[in-house]
Amino acid sequence: MDIDISGETFTIAEDAAAKRFTVSHEGKVIGLADYIDREAGADDTAEGTVRIFTHTEVSPEWGGRGLAAELVRYALETSAEEGLKFRTTCSYVQNFLHKNDEFDKFVA
């Protein structure tokens, strides 16, 4: 998915082999949101596979443009569309979820 911010184009995509979502600019990865998939456990409110977001970062020189929020929103929306519930150990994703209650029904 391409997004335009301040006249610059960024590409957000999933790299399933690496278990991460990425944001790129001119072909160079400048941010990522890592995840692991595991089977739901006794402490989850879901059945089947649960996606756990473990780490999010954007290169400092690209900070302040809202790229992390765009990346995380795409990652959560894509995961929900796949029928996955999710959890997080990443503080950025946790804060994003607190501010965006439309994802509440997908939290495991």
If you had to describe this structure to a student in words, what would you say it looks like?
This protein is α+β, with helices and mostly antiparallel strands. Helix content is 22%, strand content 41%. The chain is built from two helices and six strands; from the N terminus they run βββββαβα. The protein has helices spanning 67-81, 91-99, and strands at 2-5, 8-15, 20-25, 28-39, 49-58, 85-88. Strands 1-2-3-4-5-6 form a six-stranded mixed beta sheet, with helices on one face. The longest helix has 15 residues, at 67-81. The protein is elongated, with a radius of gyration of 14 Å. The model has no long low-confidence stretch (mean pLDDT 94).
Outline: elongated
Low-confidence stretches: none
What structural category arises from helix and sheet content?
alpha+beta
Total strands: 6
Backbone CA Rg: 14 Å
Major pleated sheet: 6 strands, mixed
User: What is the averaged pLDDT score?
Assistant: 94
Main β-sheet, spatial strand arrangement? 1-2-3-4-5-6
- Give the helix tally: 2
Order of helices and strands: EEEEEHEH
Distance between the termini: 26 Å
User: What is the percent of helical residues?
Assistant: 10-25%
Task: Please report which band the strand proportion falls in: under 5%, 5-15%, 15-25%, 25-35%, 35-45% or over 45%.
Answer: 35-45%
